[in-house]
Amino acid sequence: MTEFIQPREGILEIAPYQGGASTAEGVANPVKLSSNENPYGPPPAAIEAVRRAAARLHRYPPTDHGALRTAIGATHGVDPARVVCGVGSDEIIALLCQAYAGPGAEVIHTEHGFSMYRISALASGARPVEVPERDRTTDVDAILAAVTPATRLVFIANPNNPTGTMIGADQVTRLADGLPAHVLLVLDGAYAEYVEGFDGGAAMVDARDNVVMTRTFSKIYGLGGLRVGWGYAPAHVADVLNRIRGPFNLSTPALAAAEAALGDTVFVERCRRENARLRAFLAEALAAHGVPSDESHANFVLARFADAAEARACDAFLRAEGLIVRPVAGYKLPECLRITVGDESACRRVAHTVGRFRAEAA
Ligand code: PMP
After folding, report:
1. How confident is the model at residue 354 (pLDDT cuts 50, 70, 90)?
2. Domains along the sequence of the chain with CATH
3. pTM of the predicted structure, to 2 decimals
């Protein structure tokens, strides 16, 4: 028998990431509510910036992301020198694992936490450690109890995906205070812009040596297709990440579009307002049909059904109507469906269709 070369330990434990579905059999133009994308598309200024960048495609992009970091600093009130840009926040998560975890290390994530924490930990050779949540919410005491001398990173998303729940600044502070010096706390703020007045944890990064924040242009900035994210870190961590990231990790169009998107404050504000309004509408309409959800702070609602069978049946019912949502059994929530807050027409269709499903099942 031929013996093939084997990858490093842990890598074959990775189940490849499952993206949200985008097609529904027999439906020509389905509504995609499976990946928490912005229903209003990219900001017009970003589209124009990509057009202009097309003329410069023969040139390599800048390696230091200087213009984008300066714009991020101005928009978010952070120090541009400690911003590190990546191919989505996914890349920042991966770089953190590569730099600080690795064989022999443990990486803590929560029970229903975003799947890239586990994948990136395993890819680095580290051991992912799953910590229970309490009522689908990050449990600070459970995390602190799981820390060992081998722990290097703790990932929490705040708000969390796919639950939509959030913990307050007092809780995050308690977590940061309780971690030993050999552990870095990563605050994933992919959905931070949907929370009015929330800095995603930026002030905590400024105040400490052991906290990193990750952010993305894939959600409220409507640029998931271009892959731009960033991390905000203490100087010593930013320095480490910059040593290991690819020098040309972000393309010229991606850098230009992200910078332009930051300037389109009218677009971002409208998206935040519409999301809050329609999220409340959707949650209330689902609840009126007997489908509860936790209060969501993000751009999706985690609809909770009686059991896994009902969730699967409703998913199929919605799909037959051209409405694609996200089953989250892989996140240990088989009785739930995660539904992105779409535009007004999409939210009304989802509410109406879930109502029909429940009426027919009764
Ligand atoms: N963190 C969380 C919590 C997310 O939900 C996502 C996107 N699904 C990401 C990070 C990664 O986003 P991106 O790589 O597009 O920035």
Report:
1. very high
2. 19-41+266-361 (3.90.1150.10), 44-263 (3.40.640.10)
3. 0.97
